[in-house]
Amino acid sequence: EVQLLESGGGLVQPGGSLRLSCTASGFTFSSYAVNWVRQAPGKGLEWVSVITGSGASTYYADSVKGRFTISRDNSKNTLYLQMNSLTAEDTAVYYCAKHGAVVPAAIGGYDAFPIWGQGTMVTVSS
Amino acid sequence: HSALTQPASVSGSPGQSITISCTGTSSDVGGYNYVSWYQQHPGKAPKLMIYDVSNRPSGVSNRFSGSKSGNTASLTISGLQADDEADYYCSSYTSSSTYVFGTGTKVTVL
After folding, report:
1. Which residues of B fall within a CB distance of 8 Å from A46?
2. Dihedral over Cα of B102, A24, B53, B25: its sign
3. Cα B6 to Cα B20, B52, B70, B72, B88, distances in angstroms
4. Considering only CB atoms, which chain B residues are within 8 Å of A60?
5. What is the torsion angle, in degrees rounded to the nearest 10, for the CA atoms of residue A63, residue B49, residue A97 and residue A5?
6. What pLDDT, in 10s, does the model give residues B62-96?
7. Are A70 and A20 in contact (CB under 8 A)?
8. In this structure, are residues B29 and B92 in contact, taking their beta carbons and an 8 Å threshold?
9. Could you tell me how far CA A100 lies from the centroid of its own chain?
10. pLDDT reported for residue B10
11. CA B64/CA B79 separation, integer angstroms
């Protein structure tokens, strides 16, 4: 069964840092891009970042660029999100989401997020 | 890229059809055939319903269909059922090699 399991969420003070992890199973991890998507309490979905299957390319939403870093360790089937300079606006459930292809907008399509983890809550508060 | 525009709510009676619109720009929805739709029940992770504008993943009911015209994509749910009551989000690839979600639509089954 294809699964994603996030961990690392918690309470952090404004200006602090946190690293999220997402462990994958049931598929060839390196063959797919992976995304982070977040959802603030009572709000809609916000795409955060994507990393290609090889890890060579990364892309970020403007709201997190320069503060968040996405990375992956294909030998451990694990995705990471290093979050620095956190503010209250970063409070959200963070989901990792498997991409449909090895890179975004791949020729051949399936440019979507077919598999999601259960999410991990990040609360930024003093 | 600003969030794609969706109606806040749409409702229908069981058995009816409803359509949810998703309006963007030529830099996202209008520029690529990479629009997807997600269903989210309260407290649950989103579920992919449509990808690449009009394709259904394996296991998704054929009551769900997608289309696009210009800068607006649409999700139609036919034969509305009680379990279809949920929040629905569209998403699109953008010219910045990023993704943007819609504002979300709450579907109510009357």
Report:
1. 101
2. positive
3. 7, 18, 15, 10, 9
4. 98
5. 130
6. 999 999 999 999 999 999 999 999 999 999 999 99
7. no
8. yes
9. 15
10. 98
11. 9
